[in-house]
Hints:
alpha/beta
Amino acid sequence: MVFRKPPKSAWKLPLLWGVADRHQAGVPVFLPAMIVRENEMSASELAGILSVILSARRAAGTIIFLNLGSDRDEALRKLDLALEFGCHGVQLPERSLTVADVRRRSDRTIRIGRSVHPAAGSVETEGETPDFFLAAPVFETVGKPNAAPIGLGPLAKFCEASPVPVIGLGGITPERAWSVLDAGASAIAVRQGIFRASDPANAVRSYLLALGV
């Protein structure tokens, strides 16, 4: 793992994040923060949908990040979209734009998360560190059946080494939530556990209760 600046971020992350596609983002549940991930859509296709999502979620006070996807040209267009619509931040997959790319284009006006799988090898940051890392999958998950889970031990080592907060994602149930925080993560992110639940609103309440929020 190679890290360069900044020190631990003073930004206080919400404890619970949802990760949702365009359909799931419209589910009427309260979430403190959400990453909208719609990698199969182009920026032009996403524009109208993102506008609707942001309007609805802003009214509820939800922090919105947009996943930029791995295709560089589309990622740049989606970054421009996020800036135009006033997203709070963007999420970079492991193979995407660099943090420096985003900061140059946004004039440092937008927060940046970056996905990592620390158990898979070293984590390079190309000279700049994001505002947080999204480490996934922490546990086995049906969403990524072929991805080896990080596990709590490697997650703890990564969190200790990271100069910025870490959000854990993948296979995190309400019962497992605190084990991820105890490993050093600053927050958890959930997709299947909320948006594939029979009652998403009740699922969110279960996570918030487990987190003591």
